[in-house]
Amino acid sequence: MSNQKRTTLALAAALAGSIVVAGAPAAHAEVVDVNYQCVTPIGPKGAVSPIDIKGVRSGDGYKLTMSFQKGVSSSPVELGKGAMNPSAVIELGGAEQGKVQVTGPANSEAIPANTPIKISDLSGTYTPKKSGKVTFTAGVLTIKALGTTTTCTPKNSPGPSLELDVQGAGGSSGGGSADGGSTGGASTGGSTGGASGGGELPRTGPLDSAAALGTLGGTVLLTGAAGVLWLTRRGQRSAG
């Protein structure tokens, strides 16, 4: 095989390696329909709402945001501005077992009587203890309004809305629990629970992922270039 052909094949292998690495996913998310059955002061009510959960790197943990695309439950009387306060639990699975408490602001506008209650985005912080793939699934929703409490429980065993590949403070994988996760959101501030991370966690934002993958892809490309240089020098020695 000629020196030129060897050089071409080595460069092609290096470029192919960097392209494969760049295609690796950082997280998996999907909108999941959750069948909430609610126990209210005036009897049972229910509704299905698509739930979206997002995780964004924040310090040593992740800020979780739980979004409701449809309203759940209703009130027989109008709920004035600021009368309704929502909170919920996100269930952890996979590498960690536990719960993360998420909360949100009170309703910014009055909610008419006998209409679905639109839940604002709920947020909280998750700090991983263990390393590995962790799933995040919608749990119990609690609505407090006018001195009453409504509890809505998922009855259709919904699947996870989010999966993250996380790095815990100890760097070990498997098992573990996130006791309480975090309380806090737009209305209450709150305190972060779980273990505090000592090491840097993997980033889930697109720019952070691109930077990490680009670095790895560049390493593959440099390795290929080193092979090209070795083949070229070998060809020159053979020719001499």
TrEMBL record:
<feature type="compositionally biased region" description="Polar residues">
    <location>
        <begin position="149"/>
        <end position="159"/>
    </location>
</feature>
<feature type="compositionally biased region" description="Gly residues">
    <location>
        <begin position="168"/>
        <end position="200"/>
    </location>
</feature>
<feature type="region of interest" description="Disordered">
    <location>
        <begin position="149"/>
        <end position="210"/>
    </location>
</feature>
<feature type="transmembrane region" description="Helical">
    <location>
        <begin position="210"/>
        <end position="231"/>
    </location>
</feature>
<feature type="signal peptide">
    <location>
        <begin position="1"/>
        <end position="29"/>
    </location>
</feature>
<dbReference type="InterPro" id="IPR006311">
    <property type="entry name" value="TAT_signal"/>
</dbReference>
<keyword id="KW-0812">Transmembrane</keyword>
<keyword id="KW-0732">Signal</keyword>
<keyword id="KW-0472">Membrane</keyword>
<keyword id="KW-1133">Transmembrane helix</keyword>
<protein>
    <submittedName>
        <fullName>Peptidase</fullName>
    </submittedName>
</protein>
